[in-house]
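Justification of computing resources. Each target in the renewal requires a structure prediction run like the one illustrated here; the chain below, 387 residues long, is used simply to show the kind of job we budget for.
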Amino acid sequence: MTAVSDLDWRLITSAVLVVTVSTLPAFLTAAAIAQAGPDLGYGAQELGILTSIYFLTAAVSSSRIGNLVERIGWRRTMRFNAVAAAFMLMIIATAVRNIWSLGLVLAATAAIYGAANPAANLALARHIPEDRRGLVFGMKHAGIPTASLLAGIAVPVVILTVGWRWAYGFGALIAIGVFWLIPAERGRTFESAGSAKPGEMTSRWLAVLGLGSGFATLAAGILGTFHVDAAITYGFSEADAGTLLAAASLTTIVARATYGYLADRSGSSGLGFMIWLASLGAICFFILGTTRSTWFAIVTLAAFATGWAWPGLLTYGVVRANAGRPAGSTAITQAGIFVGAGAGPALFGWLIENRSYQAAWTVTGVSLLIAAALVGVVRLRGLPQIA
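Resulting structure tokens:
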């Protein structure tokens, strides 16, 4: 097995952070709801709609752009994403004055973000040895929880001290740093660009897997979008709610890398792990609606470590089966993730406003169980050679 010290850590870090800065506008909008919401005119339901617009736009973009990324290269795509993210963050920091202009900027950011994941997946599939891809894809999928981690930290450190606009400004500086971090195209590759393995997962099964991941994200997306508002509703202070979000996001980052490492060690396709995590996450969400105070915090950490810790395993499994077209195949499943992330916030925003958080947690748990069942079908029928 390749030594961890031999991995290209600059490339791995770039792949993580380009996703982080591309999604940071959406997560800062969620974390800053108590401060930016009154200024721009959005509450929980409007936040759900904004987040839905963001991820549904990313779904359309991702489904159409995967093959293009393979033609123009991962480095150009990643650098373009970093520059665009910096530009959009600065627009929000300086020019956005209402919910309409905020929604427009978020939609534009999402259209560009659709290329970030296929580009990062392509870079890692080309330049990371196969026996470390579970670990590395787990780490790569720390990009979104890193965005929610930064958003959580921003609440007590920036938003409550110097104002919510400064949080977006600091985010723009981070994006500029990511641009300079992205390395040049590497000469050494572990899969040739046109080599397709016999018996690779067909587009039909990729679509089913994308549907399953969509249901899983439908559930998991509520954590990053509404967690701060939920914690405040349940009696936490705004600063404590942000700190809990940061801690839970860190838990997810560690969990994703750990599960990827275990997939490498076991030779698993990753999909079996995903089924277990979705099922355990469902249990956490069923419990979450009955808890308060300390137990709410504990179950939140468990939910992040299970129901939102599977995306790296999904990408690992798809790339393992479709080594000849990693960007194009992961773009299909990524589109499913974005559809779930887009549909979830609007649905749960409505449930929260018109029913309760407990109703939203219950629907979340059911959605994760549906996801586990769909992924199970793909594992048994669509990917028999490695499942």
